[in-house]
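Researcher: Here's a chain I'd like modeled. Treat it as a single chain, no partners, no ligands.
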Amino acid sequence: MPNGPEPAARRVLYGRRMGRPLRAGQKALLDTLLPRIGIDGDALCAPFDPRPLFGPRVSEVWLEIGFGAGEHLAAQARARPDVGLIGCEPFINGVARLLAEIAAEGLENVRILHDDARLLLAALGPETLGRAFVLFPDPWPKTRHHKRRVVGPDTVDRLARALADGAELRIATDDPGYKGWILRHVLAHGAFEWTARRPGDWRARPAGWPGTRYEEKAGGAGRVPAFLTFVRRPRTLCQSS
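Model: Modeled as a single isolated chain. Structure tokens:
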């Protein structure tokens, strides 16, 4: 019988893993840069502390679940060189785009999990994250597909455990049904406080929240994004740990 903790269990991952064929330069970055900054999801064991991935130069670690083309994550990395950024994305074309930006900008504070973010969430130790982002996740609008939504009781519970007291959880969506779903599940947990006090607080993207291509596309199509910011309550004041 093994003495160490069991690796995080793999789950069914819905959605595309690859789009258009990759260019030669993108393939080269996947072969050379990704092995240097990639996280092996199969090797993650709880409790996992991501801070040693970056060394002493970073003060805290932030996580982005489903970074798409990576423009938000790269912008955060440029603006905060003292913060380590972990991005999770199964879509290889998005990973390739972010790698190109990392290489061009010389960003040293980014690590990538090219896999299901739930592998990392299942392994993260308590209070190891200073902030988390879930920006425009697939809304899976059909009722029979709601179980595929990344924001749900299990994810919220794992984020509540991994986020430090006072840490922000930022979630964006352009789907009205998903917005209600997100608010219902996050607030039902009890570990998070929604910071909005008036409609303008969630209808406009806050300062320090870089935009994305998807957001621009949504606006062009007439969809109104919602920008939801939650704060992790102090553990002494809530029942969830």
